[in-house]
Design brief:
It contains no helices and 28 strands. By secondary structure, it is mainly beta. The protein is elongated and about 90 Å long. The N and C termini lie far apart (91 Å).
């Protein structure tokens, strides 16, 4: 063995490493053949740690917590580099930020300055709402935050695609009574997305959504508590993930074609197609709120007395 510091033992100890580096060693076998091995040592100056109700989570920036939890944001540095200064975005200069009885999702940023260099960490805590939120019935875009893509009706299937501003990405989300379960109806063809991610003429309330408190970020799931996620090809998978570990989706209210409820009679709608509030096609206007499609291809909500 021959290390780049001149030592010839099979292993060496490098004390008090403060920066990343490569360490090289030549190994010669009994036949005289030499081989170069390079060890890359990567030094992390500030490690993001979180303590949740006494349990430590190492090297973690994002965490889902419950309302009322006690959280300590505890960035970690080695003892040899502990003489720097801390600054949180709330003005605190302590190393640890204590968040007791947390009530809403929040982002917290801390900077650590040492020897003229500044290192910055941004923590994101998502507080899971105690009860599923009752979404107001209306038109929405459903955005996948990780790739800035949108739930798209492809005709018979669904996927997440770049924004098109077309009706294939506008979804009428409706709930029945006070139940926080929903039908997702496409404005493209008035078909509903079923629990398998397929488009269907049968509009059933098969979708649920859990939100991060204080945000419009959510995680959709079905009656079996299987959460939505996207595979490597951006395809939507609905019946696999059993653990809530992210809030990857965002509900964005759409304020285009349908903006209000209009009081009408049978003769005043200029409609060519009629639908119930659940998206079920019907032959005429019926008492209560309806969705109609006019000769221009636009949809609107109307109230029939």
């Amino acid at each position: 063995y021959l290390w780049d510091n001149g030592q010839t033992t099979s292993s060496i100890t490098i004390p008090q490493i403060t920066s990343s580096r490569d360490v090289k060693c030549y190994i010669q076998n009994v036949h005289g053949r030499k081989q170069l091995i390079t060890f890359h040592i990567s030094v992390v100056s500030v490690r993001p740690d979180i303590i949740l109700n006494g349990t430590s989570y190492t090297n973690t920036l994002n965490l889902i917590v419950n309302e009322g939890d006690n959280v300590s944001l505890s960035p970690n540095v080695s003892e040899i580099q502990s003489y720097g200064t801390w600054e949180w975005d709330n003005g605190s200069n302590e190393q640890v930020l204590e968040l007791n009885n947390i009530a809403t999702s929040q982002e917290n940023t801390v900077s650590y300055t040492i020897d003229g260099k500044k290192y910055t960490l941004t923590y994101m805590l998502y507080v899971k709402e105690r009860n599923d939120r009752l979404i107001e019935s209306g038109n929405y875009l459903i955005r996948y935050r990780n790739s800035d893509s949108y739930l798209t009706n492809n005709g018979s299937t669904t996927s997440f695609q770049d924004q098109t501003n077309g009706k294939e990405q506008i979804w009428f989300i409706n709930h029945t009574g006070t139940n926080a379960r929903y039908t997702l109806i496409s404005l493209k063809d008035s078909l509903a997305m079923n629990s398998n991610g397929k488009m269907s003429s049968l509009a059933l309330p098969t979708h649920y959504a859990t939100f991060a408190a204080g945000t419009d970020y959510c995680s959709f799931y079905n009656s079996s508590k299987k959460y939505w996620y996207l595979d490597e090809e951006n395809n939507l998978v609905l019946n696999s993930k059993t653990i809530l570990d992210s809030f990857d989706f965002e509900l964005i209210p759409y304020t285009g074609d349908i903006t209000s409820v209009e009081n009408v009679n049978n003769e005043s709608t200029n409609a060519v197609e009629y639908y119930s509030i659940n998206g079920v096609k019907q032959d005429r206007l019926k008492e209560g709120i309806n969705v109609v499609k006019n000769s221009n291809g636009d949809y609107k909500k109307v109230f029939m007395r």
